[in-house]
Amino acid sequence: MRFCIVLFLAVIQSNAQEVLDTLDNPRYFEDQFYVGLSYNFILNHPEGSNQRNLSYGLQGGIIKDIPLNKAGTKAIGIGAGLALNSYYSNLVADVLNDDIIYSINDDITRSKLETHLLEFPLEFRWRNSTADEYKFWRIYGGIKAAYILGARSKYDLGDISEGFKNTDLTKFQYGLTLSFGYNTFNLHAYYALTELFNGNASVNGEVLQYRPLRIGLIFYIL
Fold first, then answer.
1. What is the pTM of this model?
2. Dihedral angle at the C-alpha atoms of 178, 45, 57, 52, nearest 10 degrees?
3. N or C end of the chain: which has fewer CB within 10 A?
């Protein structure tokens, strides 16, 4: 019982201190939801392979803002979110005797690799905002780590359509990020530092070394 009373008093004191800090300290927090849409480029194609159709990416999540200076113009952002990325090309994945095999087929109607990820962005943030100004310029750069929750390969060839869970991908991914813009609309880029495949996948004797580059728009919502 005595412990509960002490804990209760400590919580009250902490909350009171937060109120005083808010009154005395003009720092503010840009905690934000984010939603992004991108075009996904595939770098390091094997010989004979090329990108097709509209390879797209969707992302969304929340970022906790930690100011680094009193004015609030510099901060660290730590977040978590979900993403879906699709990659279309003439590279076809199929299953033969429980093994995943890859081939290049220019006659394919559609061939897609789709990934679902849990993402953890870490950003260094600069902006010329104030506690009362919600429209401002920003430059956010950093690194994003991600874990592939699941991946699926699918292809359509005439009347034939096949799809299956693809386990040849590198589960833990990370890369560099950069966002630049004004107010809600911002350009966003992600360059992967890890390869999409885990080294077990190859086509025509060449190891697949796909490396994604995603460029698009990201929207920050307070």
1. 0.82
2. 130
3. N
